[in-house]
Amino acid sequence: MTAKIALDPDSGVAPYEQLRTRLSELARSGALPVGRRLPTVRGFAEELGLAANTVAKAYRALEADGVIETRGRNGTFVAAAGGAAEQRAAAAARTYAESAERLGLTRDRALSLARDAVRAAYGD
Q: Domain residues for 20?
């Protein structure tokens, strides 16, 4: 993930703001997909060579913007964007993906089953 995050120490923009902006761009573009777990504050701070408080401040700002969500001890994840229907669908998709992984399905098989279900629901 750090390969996509380049902070400019000589910029007049604060490091937390640079990090907030970059993570927001990655999430909104889909490069960081909905449901992707983000590194812990401390781990990410170490990777980026920043203070933990800097990463925590960026995470708080992103959470306030609705870009990420913290699920207690489970971690911090890219949040679903869009309206309530899209958010519910993204949550259902995340639940399905987690269940498929626990059941030992390969990624390709899980995607195939999901595509079949969508085709059936939409009458394709």
A: 2-78
